[in-house]
Amino acid sequence: MYAYVRFVEEMGNSSLYTIPAKDILNFQPKDVNDFDNRTTYTAHWHDEANEENSGEYVIQILKLAASKKEMQQQLALKRPQIPKLNPSDVECEEEEQTQTKTKTARRIPTQDNGPVEGDLPRDQKLPREGSRKPAAAPGKKKSSNWKHTESSSDSDDSVVPASKLKSAKQEARFWRSQCMAERKLTASLKEEINFLRSKIVDQLTQYSESVEPAAPPPFSETSDGRFHLCNEVYTTSVQAAKLFSNKKPTILAREAAQLIWGIEVLAQRSVNGRVAPTKQGEASAQGNKNEPSEYCSHP
């Protein structure tokens, strides 16, 4: 995995760099979105051209990618914006820059007390303006030949001691890690709450459906699917549904009578005992035995 970073100490340089994510100290991202672009990290820079520039520097991560080729493709489409750093990181950065400027001012002699170019030998001429070689690496740190000024800077009231600055950085790094851990814990708790809420809603929905009384069937059916009308007179469920769909009692009684007397057993019977004519010319046929009154009294 590779990171597209900005070196924080190189304030005047707008150049951005792509470095391996493994060179960033205490940084193990799970995916390309597992970073904070408003905080600072410490990375190791290896300069092949000049080993003096190699070392640890403060950086700001702007983008992560799985490979260097993928990073180049994403940068070709859109350049990432540089957000403002957190106030705590900016304060630490300003303190470090102030200390560096103070050490530089104490090391360089003033124009009145310093040597003049004419007073020095030819091989010890003062360097002219613009003759200094530019730094090869971004955010280049000062060399170690200034260590003799650190002891005197600790006693200066206007300069923050290096020990206090180091402890402040450690404390800021600790609280930054605590903040990231709290954010992850809050996100996991929100996911768990949403999951439990959905489970509770599902349980309540199932419970409300189970306590609702079942709607009674429109009519009773036997095991074989027939409907018992009365006195062991059966009909189909379709005919029963059509019969009870009538709202007027007279129509209901008429259709019920038609249903009863349309049974095969009673098809040749009538109320007065005559044979029910089925064909033209059979009106003089002899009537059969009258049916019991119970068939007529219960339509």
From TrEMBL:
GO annotation, biological process: negative regulation of DNA-templated transcription
GO molecular function: DNA binding
Highest taxon above the source species: Eukaryota
Disordered: region residues: 75-164, 276-299
Basic and acidic residues: compositionally biased ranges: 119-132
Residue spans crossing the bilayer: none
Segments of skewed composition (Polar residues): 281-290
PANTHER family per UniProt: BEN DOMAIN-CONTAINING PROTEIN 5 (PTHR14628)
Protein name: BEN domain-containing protein
Gene source species: Rhipicephalus sanguineus (Brown dog tick)
